[in-house]
Amino acid sequence: MGYMLEGATGAWEIVVGLEVHAQVISESKLFSGASATYGGAPNSHVSFVDAGFPGMLPVINRECVAQAVRTGLGLNAQINFWSRFDRKNYFYADLPNGYQISQFAHPIVGTGVVEIELQDGTIKQIGITRLHLEQDAGKSMHDQHPAKSVIDLNRAGVGLMEIVSEPDIRSPEEAGAYLRKIRQIVRYLGTCDGNMEEGSMRADVNVSVRKPGEDFRTRCEIKNVNSVRFVMHAVEAEAQRQIEVWESGGTVTQETRLYDPARGETRSMRSKEDAHDYRYFPEPDLLPLVLDEQWVAELKAKLPELPDEKRKRFCAQYGITFYDAGVLTADQLTADFFETVAKNRDARLACNWITGDFFATLNRTGASIETSPVSAAALGELIDLISDQTINGRIAKDVFEGMVETGKMPAAIVEEKGLKQVTDTGAIDSAVAAILAANQDKVAEYKSGKDKLFGFFVGQVMKAMQGKANPALVNEVIKKQLS
Amino acid sequence: MTLTDLTIAGASTLLASREISAVELTAAHNDAVAALNPRLNAYITATPEQAQEQAKAADAAIAAGTGTPLTGIPLAIKDLFCTAGIRTTAASKILDPFIPPYESTVTAQLKAAGAVFLGKANLDEFAMGSSNITSGYGPVENPWKREGSDAKLVPGGSSGGSAAAVAARIAMGATGTDTGGSIRQPAAFTGLAGIKPTYGRCSRYGIIAFASSLDQAGPLARTVEDCAILLQVMSGFDPRDSTSAERPVPDFRAAIARGVKGLKIGIPAEYRMDGISPEIDALWQKGIGWLREEGAIIQEISLPHTKYGLPVYYIVAPAEASSNLARYDGVRFGARVDGEDLIDMYERTRAAGFGAEVKRRIMIGTYVLSAGYYDAYYLKAQKIRALILRDFTDAFAKVDAILTPTAPSAAFGIGEKMDDPVTMYLNDVFTVPSNLAGIPAMSVPAGLSSEGLPLGLQIIGRHFDEETVFAVSAAIERAADFTTKPAIIAGGA
Amino acid sequence: MSLDSAAIRRIAKLARIRVDDSEVATLQTELNAILGYVEQLNEVDVAGIEPLSGGAQMAMRLRADSCTDGDIAEHILANAPDRIGDFFAVPKVVE
């Protein structure tokens, strides 16, 4: 029994499909040579083609095509060697041509599948229906002037990949997991930066509800949701709304809605009649897109290792848990960082340090892997110092703090502060003897059965030796001297 | 010698030998434009000063030995080609204030070859029409007159201004565009040669789009050779146009002297339509005779889907146009009529800016693409279009070129054929199929009607075989020996 | 397929062309004449025929990915009927 919502008339199942719009990473736009990078002064990343001037014509960007193919391969999807562009006709201020060049009938990528992992560890497959290429629209702003809206076409014509899922998603959690997975894949592949706050990735969420066992009921589309959290909330809110409609005897009408995060609910977009009559027809300014098989094979061969594969390999190769491998492969940079640190070293130690102190430091300082105060080389050296017993685990934490603060390499910090682990049994013998001598009463208690005091003796010895003693040796010596 | 009477080929020789200068040649044409354009309305925007500047530069180039066959040659440019810094209207009020900041590829190539631009020629609005009557800047008068009649006649369309200018000798040659016959039919109505090349031969970059899968640029001139000279420069692969053909441009001028000996010429039975005027039929027969005399082999062929060409065209072209003209919304360029909100602004701007024919076609196009009608109209039309292409492909397995009349009548009066849109559409019945198939076709003046008006014959060829088209056209031209001049002409009749 | 006045208004709306009541009847007549003319296409058997788009069916050429255009904001805005700074301006849109 999956995720259900309880209504007055019983349990309801949620049915969700996601359409993700992912901006393609490329130098120039899909059909023009203007810059595709984010930002820029208004209307500066705009060519006459993007602005829809008379007589202007689209010319397709090879890299955008390659990015779509790479993404399709990353979604385990079928690559369509013949595909075609169509015009989607509608009027809006941010759509200069009065049509968007998209792919309707014959997309570049067909069916595929993606695996998501839920919190309880179950793995679920979500089907991909298709992926197609299309133009992004410009931006209109309505708050710059009391009576006017203003338009910036910088984004108009940037390549978008629209990734459509099958309606296989059954809960807010699944929706979140799916969206995170898509984001992870495109970031791994370098085909989209997945930045939802900046709008380079957006989701349209199709939601319907039904009683278990029923056919699909009418769905509503919630447009342009720009965070994973909001997607999950929107699914829940919209499902609740629809359940209320059905249970009060009404019918859900198919419509486009927006999610209002402030209110935590969806609302109807001002509907325009014929809003959906896009009058698709084949784009006459373009020819069919025919992919060279050899070219696609080369793209496939050069694909980076994908997150799921990498995660499995990490478990097998480094002997770390599936959970930890998931954390380390959440993004490519972290995974690379780990592998650099773990190379020829104790991988589990590396894993613990990275997922523990290192991540905590990044969180605390607001840094990212790229801006990390501690480099992979530095962390690797720290682990070497632990592994060869130069320092113990406790001291290592202090050294790490020093690394974060000063940016210095661990060996240098150990030298400077004289933190080398003491393994000289003579020194330890003396220290233990001194502690035992100073605590005769406790020795007697220990010998009469209070085993816990062993820890007290260890603690005292470590303190006396400023933490630098090798703990295993300390244990051994105390045991010997107490026997 | 009347400078405005020269052909491009003739003037080019005289310029090269410095017997005449580009400056005087252009001055003569500027004077002619000033004298006759107020009446003919062939130009929407005359550019005499820029023309003079270009002429000076041309003389310098010739003196420096870097002249080309087009250096110093004064041309009319159909106002559908975007010319940087020079107002470009598409003969529509909606583009009345538009000054393109870019140049079309075709006109850039003509400029690079040293041609002089006398101005922007009038046309049917957005190239939609066969008479130049739909222009937002007034109709164009055909310099030809019926014998004994003062009635103003249409020059044909949509390249009516280009045709009238060249025929009246207020330009030496002109650029046109042909989507359903818009070069060939006006050429036939005004006694000129005009060719629509293979789709993809000339770049569409910077040409205001009407129907993207049909539009092609081409020349109008007084001789077949002049057309060849112009087309040579206008043609060529352009990476800025995805439909541009990546093919070398052959030597069109050289093909003119080839002759037609041994060529197989197809005569399609279906072009002998009900109601075809006897004198046009007679001219057609004459043309067949000329070619036979020159050694061509005449063969009856069948193009079974010919009559469906026009209805297919009047679905496909308006459909594409309805989408191509969506950008005329008053937001980024052109005229704007204010409104209460954005939609109101769109609706008022477009209602005020577009003429009646353009509105009709946009609406038909919108309808045939709309939900529920796409299959019945647009999809079906594109399938029949495939059959029309197949007809030609089958025919060209047997013949090398096809000979037909260009238009079903001679030029008609301004104000005639206005009963309903369809009557006007029937002007294109012989020209439309070659646009649908994307194959090259040329009109050559072949004779006069009983009223003394020019009649043209059309030569259709295989994809990218303009050379054969030129060869056959030249043969017709030689045999026809068409030397009559129109009533209204620079320097007097 | 005959268009009634409601259809004319709907098409005009889709095409964003304002049509006055006085124009509807004329448009109806004219457009129906055109649609009547194209009805003859129903005579043709198109079973098994693939639709044609362009003249010569080639495959599309792909352009190299480099930034070769843009940075021409003044040219882009030079013909704007209304602008505010480097933005195009239109009557306010209410979403």
Q: What this model shows, in words?
A:
Chain A is of the alpha+beta class and 483 residues long. Helix content of chain A is 39%, strand content 19%. Chain A has 15 helices and 16 strands. The termini of chain A are far apart. The relative contact order of chain A is 0.10. Chain B has 493 residues and is α/β, with parallel strands linked by helices. Chain B has one domain: Amidase signature (AS) enzymes (Alpha-Beta Complex), CATH 3.90.1300. Chain B has helices at residues 8-16, 22-40, 48-63, 105-112, 160-167, 184-189, 224-234, 252-255, 278-293, 309-324, 342-353, 356-369, 375-396, 421-425, 432-437, 466-480; strands at residues 43-46, 74-78, 116-121, 173-178, 193-196, 216-221, 264-268, 297-301, 401-405, 441-448, 454-461. The longest helix of chain B is centred in the last third of the chain and has 22 residues, at 375-396. Helix content of chain C is 35%, strand content 7%. Chain C has a two-stranded antiparallel sheet. The longest helix of chain C has 18 residues, at 21-38. The chains are: A alpha+beta (483), B alpha/beta (493), C mainly alpha (95). Chains B and C meet through helix 10, helix 11, helix 12, helix 13 and helix 14 of B and helix 1, helix 2 and strand 2 of C. Strand 9 (148-152) of chain A pairs antiparallel with strand 2 of chain C, so a sheet runs across the interface.
